[in-house]
Write a structure and sequence with these properties.
Layout (H helix, E strand, L loop, with lengths): L1 E5 L3 H13 L3 E5 L2 H8 L7 E5 L7 H10 L7 E6 L4 H9 L4 E4 L4 H33 L9 H18 L2 E9 L2 H8 L1 H16 L7 E6 L2 E9 L2 H14 L4 E3 L2 E3 L3 E8 L6 H17 L5 E3 L4 H18 L5 E10 L5 E12 L3 E3 L5 H7 L2 H21 L6 E6 L1 H4 L3 H13 L6 E6 H5 L2 H14 L2 E7 L6 H4 L6 E4 L1 H5 L5 H16 L3 E4 L5 H9 L4 E2 L10 H9 L2 H5 L2
Parallel strand pairs: 1-2, 1-3, 3-4, 4-5, 11-12, 14-16, 16-17, 17-18, 18-19, 19-20, 20-21
Antiparallel strand pairs: 6-8, 6-11, 7-8, 9-10, 13-14, 13-21, 14-15
Helix pairs in contact: 7-8, 10-11, 13-15
Bound molecules: ligand C2E and calcium ion (2 copies).
């Protein structure tokens, strides 16, 4: 314990010094009131102080009064040494702010006990302060990640806003939401989810500049304030950095996880001038980012507000759409490149909206995924597509398979197997006439579980295709682990096939490797004869695209089935 002793009389001073050192105190000694006062102003001044009352110049009582006047000073325990053993003086000393007094000539034993009491008070005080600091920490920080919480975030943002107003600066608020985090939580468990959130927080920290605040709002939502900005571009740069930082795989409990994030950005003063509005608008922009396919950022624009309500309306409308028979399936033919024959079709859902007209899937599938409505929607698609295929077969068309898209969200749901079984059973369709199209995401999210589901599906006899191949990050090698039958080369590669040597090389490699794994290769989005010829030269098996036909209603699809082969392939 450190202590300060102020005593002008050299003999008493040496005596005190000797005793206190013997009792184990670490001592700072002053020989005058002024010197003591100066030492007590130092940052790390002792908190136990023994002051002689009677000193020339500044005396003990004066120092007492001055110490107690200092606001924000950590508590200092003061023992006065008084020569006059009179009650009246003692009261005066206590009144001036002393905690205790010892009369001179003092009894060493008494001084020792009184100092010990002081030390106990100071210890208790420290404990109290630590407890209060911890409470404060807990009230303002998220216990999982240690980041500031919603409360502290609002506080910091308020401070930044005040500063930005003064300096006429720009300021941005970023709202981040992990895409499909719930899926990871549901399939790998909360422990894994927690670990992931912690790692995400760590990576996000590396994207910040000094003065920025990263906070966790709860769940998988994070916010960032960006102070000191020159232009919108600065915020966009940070958003891009955040997206990049989260792209690399996460290793969690032995799983390789890939995640992405959607980010909304709002700017002060353009999009709001208070905490609530800025956060709300960044949140709305984040939803827009999700709608636009996720893994991207979006800067708020005034019209988003309207969109947020439109979204809510869309959501409640979608709930009823299935019951009200507003969903329709269009079918796009798949054609064998060598024979020109139609080998199957892909069922693509549309929503015949009573007010908005025929909506393409990108406008409601993301909402369906977010809300869980995708499960019911996929069940409907499965049933309808199987019934339709059966109807075509009964009408005498050649046997073919119809493909149904299964979103990653539904793939993780245990009800998928039952839904497939039911659709096959109620339609009477042979299992090999149904193909399920899965994206890489469905597999990379939780490869072990995915392999299990695929094996179950495979044992039922349905065909399995990997959709949009090349757009994600899975390698063909990766597919070895899964019992899939078909790989669909993503439209983006086919588009520039004849002009971009890179894409051509990739497409070629995919075909060769897929064949070595005994997989069929389908090229998507074939629009021109040049592309078709090129694919033929690569030995690609099948193709799908506007070159043959857009997705069409069932009746039109039946017409296509009746056309001669050459007409279909256009040669
Ligand atoms: P996808 O599975 O990649 O489906 C192919 C998309 O490419 C379809 O868009 C189709 O119209 C379009 N397409 C076909 N040929 C061409 C072409 O030559 N050029 C161009 N530019 N595009 C072509 P669509 O029908 O708008 O569907 C978009 C996406 O919505 C689908 O992408 C699929 O991921 C999703 N989707 C559609 N129906 C369902 C469904 O029933 N369930 C689920 N979960 N997702 C669905
Ligand atoms: Ca598809
Ligand atoms: Ca596709």
């Amino acid at each position: 314990m450190r202590a300060l002793v102020a005593e002008d009389d050299p003999i008493s001073r040496r005596l005190l010094e000797a005793m206190l050192v013997k009792w184990g105190y670490e001592l700072i000694v002053a020989s005058s009131g002024e010197e003591a006062w100066r030492l007590l102003q130092e940052e790390d001044a002792p908190r136990l102080v023994i002051l002689d009352w009677m000193m020339p110049g500044m005396d003990g009582v004066q120092i007492c009064r001055e110490i107690r006047k200092q606001e924000g000073r950590p508590y200092t325990y003061i023992v006065l040494l008084t020569a006059k053993n009179e009650k009246q003086d003692a009261v005066e000393g206590l009144h001036a702010g002393a905690d205790d007094y010892v009369a001179k000539p003092f009894n060493p034993q008494e001084l020792k006990v009184r100092l010990r009491a002081g030390k106990r008070v100071l210890d208790l005080q420290s404990e109290l302060l630590a407890a209060r600091a911890e409470l404060q920490e807990r009230a303002t920080h998220d216990s999982l990640t240690g980041l500031p919480n919603r409360l502290l975030f609002a506080d910091r943002l308020n401070q930044c806003l005040a500063a930005a107003r003064r300096r006429k600066d720009l300021l941005a608020v970023m709202f981040l939401d992990l895409d499909r985090f719930k899926l990871i939580n549901d399939t790998l468990g909360h422990n894994a989810g927690d670990q992931l959130l912690r790692k995400v927080a760590d990576r996000l920290k590396t994207c910040l500049r000094e003065g920025d605040t990263l906070a966790r709002m709860g769940g998988d939502e994070f916010t960032i304030t960006l102070a000191d900005m020159q232009s919108e571009r600065d915020a966009v740069a940070v958003a891009q950095r955040a997206l990049d930082a989260l792209t690399d795989q996460f290793l969690i409990a032995g799983h390789e996880l890939f995640i992405s994030t959607s980010i909304g950005i709002s700017l002060f003063p353009a999009h709001g001038s208070d905490v609530e509005t800025l956060v709300k608008n960044a949140d709305a922009a984040m939803y827009r980012a999700k709608e636009q396919g996720r893994n991207c950022y979006k800067v708020f624009s005034g019209s988003l507000n309207v969109d947020a309500t439109a979204r809510v309306r869309l959501e409640s409308g979608l709930r009823k759409a299935i019951d009200k028979d507003q969903l329709v399936l269009h079918y796009q033919p798949r054609v064998d490149i060598r024979s020109g024959r139609i080998t199957g079709g892909e069922a693509l859902v549309r929503w015949q909206h009573p007010e908005l007209g025929l909506l393409p899937p990108d406008q409601f599938i993301p909402v369906a995924e977010e809300t869980g409505l995708i499960v019911g929607l996929t069940e409907w698609v499965l049933r309808t597509a199987c019934d339709q295929n059966m109807a075509w077969q009964r009408a005498g068309h050649p046997i073919m398979d119809v493909a149904v898209n299964v979103s990653a969200r539904h793939f993780q749901n245990a009800s998928l197997l039952t839904a497939v079984e039911n659709a096959l059973h109620s339609s009477g369709l042979a299992a090999e006439c149904l193909c399920l199209e899965l994206t890489e995401n469905a597999l990379t999210l939780n490869p072990e579980a995915a392999a299990g589901v695929l094996r179950d599906l495979k044992s039922m006899g349905v065909r399995l295709a990997i959709d949009d191949f090349g757009a994600g990050r899975a390698s063909l090698n990766y597919l070895k682990r899964f019992p899939v039958d078909v790989v669909k080369i993503d439209r983006s590669f086919v588009r520039d096939l004849t002009t971009d040597p890179n894409d051509a090389a990739i497409a070629g490699a995919v075909v060769a490797m897929a064949h070595s794994l005994k997989l069929k290769v389908v090229a998507e989005g074939v629009e021109t004869l040049e592309q078709l010829d090129f694919l033929r030269s690569l030995n690609c098996d099948e193709m799908q695209g506007y070159f043959v036909s857009r997705p069409v209603r069932p009746a039109a699809f039946a017409d296509l089935l009746m056309e001669p082969v050459a007409a279909v392939i256009g040669s």
